[in-house]
Structures
1.
Amino acid sequence: MRRFKIFILLILLIYFKNIFSNDNLNTEIPKILPPKIVNQENSDDDFAIPEIKKSGEDIDGEDLRYLEKTYTVMVEAKVDVFIPLEVVSDINIEETIIGNQIKEIPFEIELNRTPEKKDYYSIKYSETVIDIDMDGKPDTYIYSPKYINEKISKDNYVKIYGEKITKEGTHRKKIYVTVEVGE
């Protein structure tokens, strides 16, 4: 959505540039000089419109050209700020598995806000089937509900099958969690 708004803003800027550009005329573009600001102390506005130099005035030895048309353009911009839904909690799971135990470890995922649409956003993991001991057989699985509808999702768990872990020791794995738009 944010990319779409930026795209529309760029199209509007290009459109206004084409309307007010001198490209449609077969004349050269006059030299632009830094504006001389009108005395702002006596002005009731937040800003003052700069003076326009008249033709024939000599500035630094150069004659200015005649301005055929002048425009004062006031543009109002409105911006909708959209904060994306994102995971704000880190999840650390530490568990000791002895022998052929099967363990289910629940965990919570906290978002930065409550989703505005129900059954629309889902949790996406970089991996859900994991080979924690790197022996070629998956032994750890991550489960989450299909959709996330609350700020804190509590129905998530990791299931570890001790019988499939062949190497002893401490095993670590980093999994990335993001929020995805449901289909």
2.
Amino acid sequence: MATTAFHQPVILLLGERRGSHEVDKWLKESRYSICEATNVFQALEHVSDFTVGEAPDVVFLHVDRIEADMEMLENMLMASAPDFHPSVIAYANRPAEDSGLVGLALQLEKLIPVCPQVN
């Protein structure tokens, strides 16, 4: 069964890949449809490509300069279509901190509610 999304996608900026395997693993095991991007431009492409049937719930990418990339991404989103507002979350890697993953999970739950299934 496929789910119908009633939400905008989320772009998740993660810190450097080193030490972030817990977050990557958690995302892969989560209920969300995910897609990994290599840079902010590819992330925007994944959430705004209207030629695909469904956008992923979460597009995540690892960046070296999380604050600078978040600012650039938000500026690019503001310049895009006015009715298109994906959420952007920055998650700095905090190795071995389960409370960080719990906080991330709560943020995603608010932004991506469980959708009813459609046949």
